[in-house]
Amino acid sequence: MDADTAGTAPQPATASPPAVGFAEAARYWLYLGFISFGGPAGQISIMQTDCVDKKRWIDQQAFLRGLNYSMLLPGPEAQQLAAYIGWRLHGIWGAVTAGTLFFLPGAILMMALAWVAAAHGDNTWVIKVFNGIKPAVIGIIVFAVWRIGKKTCNSIPAVTLAAAAFAALYFAHVPFPLIILAAGILGAMIPALGRVGGHGSGGDGSQTDSHHMQRPPGNPWIRLAKISLVFLVLLALPVVALVALAGPAPFVAVAKLFTTAAFVTFGGAYAVLPYITDAAVNTHGWIAPGDMLNGLALAETTPGPLVLVNTYVGFFAGWNGAGAAHLSQVAAALLAAALTTYVTYLPSFYFIIAGAPYVDALQKNEHARRALSGITTAVVGVIFNLAVFLGESVLITASGSIDWTAAAVATGALALLLSGKVPIPALVGIGAVLGASGIV
Prior knowledge:
Layout: H1 22-35, H2 39-54, H3 60-72, H4 77-120, H5 124-152, H6 156-170, H7 176-189, H8 191-194, H9 220-246, H10 251-263, H11 269-283, H12 289-300, H13 309-321, H14 329-355, H15 359-363, H16 366-395, H17 404-419, H18 424-436
Helix pairs in contact: 1-4, 2-4, 3-4, 4-12, 4-13, 4-14, 5-12, 5-16, 5-17, 5-18, 6-16, 7-16, 9-14, 10-14, 11-16, 12-13, 12-16, 13-14
């Protein structure tokens, strides 16, 4: 989930939703996949306008319940909300179709852009463009710290938790999943932390639009066990197939890293990037810090969830870490990127399909809401750690001095974002122009 969408409260709609054909819905989800720019807040706003206000596929209270449930989950909440709406309309296949088409166009585009960066990254013009983009992205990351921090770090315990998360990552090198676990436990246990996130209930409106909201008959634990078994099989099959086709490197490591990341991506893509960056840069050597910034910039300017940056990293994992001599570098990169994308989003479908019938009960769980608030608070420190880690690679020269031109671009980017007058994609474009012109 992305904390920037906390407090989203669309206007009520009261009309009864009409029936919708599967093909019509699929066409819409594909269309949404191509135009879903603007991050989760913009994507959720589009679905509110189209699915609730115009098409009336889902009523307002059900939309809010789906949004709040998605915000409780790890992973991209806009994509999960699309899957949730698809589930209400057409069951499991509706969820799979909606959730997949939401990110598929962006994933394909990201693979193409990753190929340009990997194959032509030594081109002088490409280097100049990325040199201008990198400091702008530093400003974007600092803006994310401020944007989330102003909503969550509004008490001494909250500031302390965010600072502790930063110190644990930066100085003690505590694994990111452990920090998320500790923050969730503290949030659930300490009321002062559990109140800071601002995550409330979506309302208690009646369920009028779909029989799918009814709890399925039978034992819910048996249902969960069956769904979990299917999930594990679907998770293992492509990994086993790729290992048989091309050997274990880098596919086993890719599957392990990005599957783990998918289960701890609370706070949006920015929160999990330090974990991904540390593993991809320091542990596996797949990608350089500067290339991580390039990937983040490209993810900001393409449709779909920001976590598509994982696809970019996965491409570089295959490009630089291929172990099979009979696979070309491009083939290994595309397979690794596809596997990364698959394991990044598969857990989201698992969460939606397994939990959707029990949305109301889960959202009434005070401990779950407080745990989420604690995690969201710690994420501020986690994102600040990302800004410091990547900032050091961009703003500090090889001799240890400050690159004042890059620092000025980063500061200017932050100022423009704080003004609220320049959207992030435009800011990335400005950085690219500055780089191409040789100013940076």
